[in-house]
Design goal:
Blueprint (H helix, E strand, L loop, with lengths): L1 H21 L3 H18 L9 E6 L3 H20 L5 E6 L7 H13 L8 E7 L2 E4 L12 H13 L4 H4 L2 H15 L7 E4 L3 H17 L12 H16 L5 H6 L9 E4 L13 H5 L18 H15 L19 H11 L5 H9 L3 H4 L2 H8 L7 H8 L6 H11 L3 H9 L4 H11 L24
Parallel strand pairs: 1-2, 1-5, 2-3, 5-6
Antiparallel strand pairs: 3-4
Helix pairs in contact: 1-3, 2-3, 5-9, 7-9, 12-13, 12-14
Length: 461
């Protein structure tokens, strides 16, 4: 029975390969042969290809989907010529949280490539900082996002709440943290393949090295030799951003990393035609738009998250007289599509709409400068408790109900709120956070905020 099953699967894989080749252009088939040669060389020869482990990050763009199709074609082509082929590990990434529509799109591609039941393929996805088996129905486990949740809230309240900064270069630390976790698995990959253009790779490396230098990290972090080390260093920075403010010095001082054997193979030179119009998208069920393809560094970010955050911030900044009421999605009268989308933005993190609105106002930084305005706009019934709110944020005795309100409204602990209120950080930590706030998710420079709108640093204690 086993022999019959293996023969049937071999026939199915051969049909999948024929379909793939039939949907490829002549230039793509030529690039496929070059890709196969590079993989065999990287493995050390055909005799080692059976134990060679290849990893690829699957993003939310056509480039990622077509690269996966090329790797699948290479895997199946080698399997037809030799008894064994390389192991392929696919890691689906979409930050801050992957949407159901995105997961369904990936599932269509995986099914078209017949990857779900192939023991040579490992399909995984990132949930928070954990790597879990791929599923089109992600589990609801808020504890997986605890570090990422604290990092986003602390960064927004303490440094910059602009959507481009909040979901900007800071997300690259979150991604590095999850990838670093994946690389420390029991069977780590031997090679990571990317088709990111060389200019984008250089921009990312310059940003990463600068961030590590500001944090006191050491090492060359050569991309073709030490990707795991680079991911580990950025992961430590992410832990510092999301951890207790008093522990910044300890976290940042320990960012120094050691070399690791994971290599990177950049094949953007082989696949310049990946973004051409072609029939391959029809086979894969690819519905990603062209807009996402122009910015490879943003391929791992949920394309709707930034728009939803912009919409929420615009509504918070509208004049009070014309501002519509913001209701939670599960409250009566609050089930319109816009409210539901905004709730989805923080759903995975365990952040409700009231806490997102609080984040947009930033009421606790600079000794609660915007606290009274926040209460006037959104919590007028708490204005009478304003003196007690300041006492709670200063660490002075106050009613427990006031403390509970602060925690529930912000989503942060009292210790974190008091640190934000005082705004006292080590200078090295402030430099790292300010550097993160300077660039968006494409790592382009953001315009500086007016001095009256800046938050946080007030000097050393």
């Amino acid at each position: 029975m086993t022999a019959i099953h293996d023969q049937a699967m071999h026939y199915i894989y051969q049909q999948v390969l024929e379909r793939l080749l039939g949907h490829m252009s002549q230039a793509q088939r030529a690039s496929l042969q070059l890709l196969i040669q590079r993989l065999l060389v990287a493995a050390g020869g055909p005799e080692y290809i059976g134990t060679f482990r290849v990893m690829v990050l699957q993003g939310n763009d056509r480039r990622s989907t077509r690269l996966l199709a090329m790797l699948r074609a290479a895997q199946l082509s080698i399997a037809l010529r030799a008894p064994v082929t390389f192991q392929l590990r696919v890691l689906v990434v979409s930050l801050p949280a992957v949407s159901s529509a995105t997961l369904e799109g990936h599932e269509r591609s995986f099914n078209a490539l017949f990857m779900q039941d192939d023991p040579r393929v490992q399909l995984q996805m990132i949930e928070g900082r954990e790597v879990v088996p791929f599923s089109s129905r992600p589990s609801v486990a808020p504890e997986r996002w605890l570090l990422a949740r604290d990092a986003m809230l602390m960064f927004g309240h303490l440094v910059d709440v602009r959507p481009e900064a909040l979901l900007g270069s800071r997300l690259h630390l979150e991604l590095a943290d999850a990838v670093g976790f994946a690389l420390r698995a029991q069977a780590p990959a031997d090679l990571l393949i990317t088709d990111m253009p060389v200019r984008q790779r250089r921009r990312y490396l310059v940003w990463a090295r600068r961030s590590l230098r500001l944090a006191g990290g050491r090492g060359q972090h050569v991309p073709h030799q030490c990707l795991a080390a680079l991911a580990h260093g950025l992961s430590r920075l992410h832990g510092a951003v999301g951890g207790p403010l008093g522990a910044y010095a300890q976290h940042l001082a320990s960012v120094a990393v050691e070399s690791a054997p994971l290599r990177v193979m950049a094949i953007d030179d082989l696949l310049p035609h990946l973004l051409e119009e072609q029939q391959l998208d029809l086979m894969l069920g690819n519905r990603f738009g062209c807009a996402e393809d122009a910015w490879p560094l943003a391929a791992f970010v949920d394309p709707l998250a930034l728009a939803q955050l912009h919409d929420l911030r615009a509504r918070c900044l509208e004049p009070q007289a014309s501002r519509p009421a913001l209701r939670l999605a599960d409250q009566a009268g609050g089930n319109n599509q816009r409210d539901v989308q905004q709730i989805q933005l923080g759903k995975a993190y365990g952040i409700n709409q009231a806490q997102l609105v609080c984040l947009m106002f930033g009421p606790f930084a600079r000794q609660g400068k915007n606290l009274e305005r926040f209460l006037q706009c959104r919590h007028a019934d708490m204005l009478v408790a304003l003196p007690y709110l300041h006492r709670a944020l200063q660490g002075k005795p106050c009613p427990d109900a006031v403390k509970d309100w602060l925690v529930n409204t912000s989503g942060l602990t009292l210790g974190q709120l008091r640190a934000i209120y005082e705004g006292r950080l080590p200078l090295s930590a402030w430099r790292v956070l300010s550097n993160l706030a300077r660039r968006d998710v494409h790592l382009r420079l953001l315009p500086r905020r007016p001095s009256g709108q800046r938050r946080g640093f007030t000097g050393r204690p």
